[in-house]
Amino acid sequence: MNAPATSVLLRGVLLYGEGPETDVLITGEEIAGIGADLDADGAEVVDARGQILLPGFVDMHTHLREPGREDTETIESGSAAAALGGYTAVFAMANTDPVADSVVVTDHVWRRGQEVGLVDVHPVGAITVGLKGKQLAEMATMAAGIGRVKMFSDDGHCVDDPLIMRRALEYSSSLGVLIAQHAEEPRLTVGAVAHEGPTAARLGLAGWPRAAEESIVARDALLARDAGARVHICHASTAGTVELMKWARGQGISITAEVTPHHLLLDDSRLETYDAINKVNPPLREKSDVDALRKGLADGVIDCVATDHAPHAEQDKCCEFSIARPGMLGLETALSIVVDTMVTPGLLDWRGVARVMSERPAEIVGLVDQGRPIEVGEIANLTLVDANSSWTVSGEKLASVAHNTPFEDMTFSSKVTTTVLRGRITVRDGVVANRAGE
Ligand SMILES: NC(=O)N[C@@H](CC(=O)O)C(=O)O
Ligand SMILES: [Zn+2]
């Protein structure tokens, strides 16, 4: 009997980058067999010899801009970018227009993501109404909606009022959801556009001090401790944040943190050209911070990589540095950058890549069907990486509506070739498959 049409055979993969080559058979939504020379039996065969098989990536920090700024990204275009980047789940931040501070918006985001069907788009709910930091949003209602909101964040803004943050943390632990903080003391960043240091001083750019981030990280660690809650730090950018994470963990505080690919690769020397493509919040820091972030990620002090994929219209990035919007694309380049900054220098092996791109984010946010071991009987959320393929980034060719990549013309050595979402191929040979999986 022929296998059902939904069967896929991945031929000759390296599980977590380790030999010998093996086949992986996927039937329906599940991994049905792992072993040498499996019988295709009518399954679609993907010739994946020598490619590295990892669990599908999970991005805790994505801006998909729908609703409100569909001229820069939509759930459909962002889902395509995510699938091409090897992601099987992303968390869409709440700073949309309208803000995702109600179940109407969070349910819409979830439903639209399911309609597109390329990646699970989990809505992030706002912590406060309108991201204004004054009044808690209806977290329980959003958590109970169809979108089942698991993570709340005012990202783009810091919840700077310590009493509001404390209440949000207390509330979150009874709901079993995660609070993610954009750590930025706003009274220290008025007018700030670049990392406060010698480069910004020389270029005449207003500086964003490390203490703006670190003071909130320290404060929120203490608030989480007192509330008996968990807190997650978005886009950690300084060496001091890594030290504070170590301290807080040592105290038994439930605190986790992510780092972005751009903070692992770029430093503020990029600002010499005044090109606003390099403007981002938090800003690109100094080489010593980059080194500390890499080491922190290798040691597990920083838990995971999150893209902070932030599409912006050309007119908002091509203007003067001080008025341009902060943010850069990240979904399609994340894996390549993690390999170049962490695997190539020997800071992480491929098991480590699985940990920081998939397993830890899934655990932190409580996804049960993602970041799972590659074993028979598990749901097939998988990513195949070719570690010997040189490719050069071109913003025009990325799937996002906006093209604001700071990695233009950079060449990388690894690329996602295939992504599988619950047994269905969403990316084949680096091209998005249609909804029917063809
Ligand atoms: N990171 C950014 O520079 N921008 C993000 C907001 C954010 O993540 O803080 C955006 O929404 O554009
Ligand atoms: Zn942010």
From TrEMBL:
Pathway(s) this gene product operates in, as recorded in its UniProt entry: Pyrimidine metabolism; UMP biosynthesis via de novo pathway; (S)-dihydroorotate from bicarbonate: step 3/3
SUPFAM superfamilies: Composite domain of metallo-dependent hydrolases, Metallo-dependent hydrolases
Signal peptide, first to last residue: none
Positions of Zn(2+) 2 binding: 155, 182, 235
Documented EC number(s): 3.5.2.3
Active site residues according to the UniProt entry: 308
This protein's UniProt keywords: Hydrolase, Metal-binding, Pyrimidine biosynthesis, Zinc
Family: Belongs to the metallo-dependent hydrolases superfamily. DHOase family. Class I DHOase subfamily.
Entry's cofactor comment: Binds 2 Zn(2+) ions per subunit.
Domain of life of the native organism: Bacteria
Protein name, as recorded: Dihydroorotase
Binding-site list for Zn(2+) 1: 61, 63, 155, 308
Any GO MF annotation of the entry: dihydroorotase activity
UniProt: substrate binding residues: 63-65, 95, 281, 312, 326-327
Matches recorded under InterPro entries: DHOase, DHOase/Allantoinase_Hydrolase, DHOase_cat, Dihydroorotase_CS, Metal-dep_hydrolase_composite, Metal_Hydrolase
Cofactor(s) needed: Zn(2+)
Domain Dihydroorotase catalytic: residue ranges: 50-238
Function recorded in the entry: Catalyzes the reversible cyclization of carbamoyl aspartate to dihydroorotate.
EC supergroup of this enzyme: hydrolase
Catalytic activity: (S)-dihydroorotate + H2O = N-carbamoyl-L-aspartate + H(+)
Pfam family, one: DHOase
